[in-house]
Amino acid sequence: MLTLKRALGRWDLTAIGVNQVIGGAIFLWPAQVAAQVGAWSPIGFVLIGVLSLSVALCFAELGSRFDTTGGPYVFTRAAFGDFVGFEIGWMQWFSRASSQASIMAATAIALGYYWPALTTGWPRAAFLAALTLIFAAINIRGVRHGSAVVNVMTVGKLVPLAIFIVVGFAYVQPSRLTTLPSITLQQSLAAGLLLIFIYGGYEVVPVPAGESLDPRRDVPFAMIATIVSVMIIMTLTQVVAQGVLGDVASHATPIADAAAVFLGAAGALLIGIGSVVSMTGNNAGQVLSGSRMIFALAEQGQLPALLARIHPIYRTPANAIIFTSGVALTLALSGSFAQIALVSALARLLMYGGSAAATLRLRSPRFAHAVKPAGFTAPFGPVMPIAAIGVCAALAAGATGRQLLGGVAALAIGGILFLCSNRASV
After folding, report:
1. Which of 289, 372, 379, 407 is deepest in the core (most CB within 10 A)?
2. Once rounded to an integer, what is the mean pLDDT over residues 376-399?
3. Do the domain assignments include residue 5?
């Protein structure tokens, strides 16, 4: 039977994770976080980083039990059955497709600073279509090709950020980080949801497990390495931006503006190039991970088998790549991704909380013969997954009515698709 080609090592998986977390958001959203909690922002980055690490440790344990494509979908399906697994898998793919659309649109806006024509009309449409076709073609040709692009782009985005952090530290004014304003619980929860969005993406690490050389060993390593790396990078980036600018919340492009203070116009250009490279790399990673999510659903018979077709030469999920790319392009061209993206953070909380719950459930002796034994176990017994579930629930409680309504709507659509697929298979 034709299967996906195993070609990814632990550092490939780590690069996929880092690339997905550090996208365009880190260059723009620090101002949004500061607008909510001011000088508490760096502390917020650390706290949500620790929360993300608690979830990542659950993912690491789950990843050490499975060697198939799907990540959270596979984990929750094994623990809670077909319906819960389908809803998690659907929300996985839903958030990836809308995120890919938003990042593509943001890339056009970023390049539009230098070539204004790219922001409107047919030049914008042509650019988005070309970007989609290029990354779809690369990923169809082979997972190694897609991963190689991600690896190069990951290095390309980290170099400007490293220069920004190292040089910028000398210009940080400590008083801008130590004058902590009083904040409300609602502000804290709102900032938490923003940070969940900024940190989002590490859940893709176990998704291509079916193409990993040794997933039960490499996924746990890559999960932990991803979170530790991005927590350090993003916290230090926020420290420099806030310590240099002070009023970071008033800057639409805080990282570029801070770089301009201590590196001049060349520094702002460096960060501008870095943001474009970052978003382009994120697009490449979205195609790789998003397509594998819907492939996994189809592979398990929960979506049309056409989406589970493996290319006979390249051994990649070609139809899933084409379908996901087509949906993302349609959303990017229509602009409707902006409304859909409202539920992205909630979708991630559902994946995180569901996977943490699956960690507890799969430890039960009743699953001893249903799943492989864990090669890695999250520390502190049940404390870690229970804490992750609790914090995810608390952050979800801070969502706006519009976000909650969008989340319920997305779940309802998933439920309808599940019922339709079940009827079709009867």
Report:
1. 289
2. 85
3. no
Phi-psi bin for 212: left (phi > 0), alpha (psi -120 to 50), beta?
beta
User: What CATH number corresponds to the domain at position 356?
Assistant: 1.20.1740.10
Q: Is the pTM of this model over 0.90?
A: no
Of residues 292, 308, 346, the one with CA closest to residue 95: 346
* Number of C-beta neighbours around residue 271 at 10 A: 25
> Which range marks the domain in which residue 214 is found?
10-425
| Total domains present in the chain | 1
- 3-class DSSP assignment, residue 363: coil
Per-residue pLDDT at 89 exceeds 70 = yes
Q: Token pair for residue 214? A: 């040794």
Q: Tokens in use for 227?
A: 């979170």
Tell me, yes or no, whether 4 lies in a domain.
no
pLDDT tens for residues 239-272? 999 989 878 888 878 888 899 998 998 888 888 8
Residue 187 domain flag: yes
CA pair distance 240, 259, nearest whole angstrom: 9
CA 320, CA 294: separation in Å to the nearest integer?
6
- Angle at the Cα of 333 from the Cα atoms of 330 and 335, rounded to 5 degrees: 100
For residue 3, tell me if it sits in a domain. Answer: no
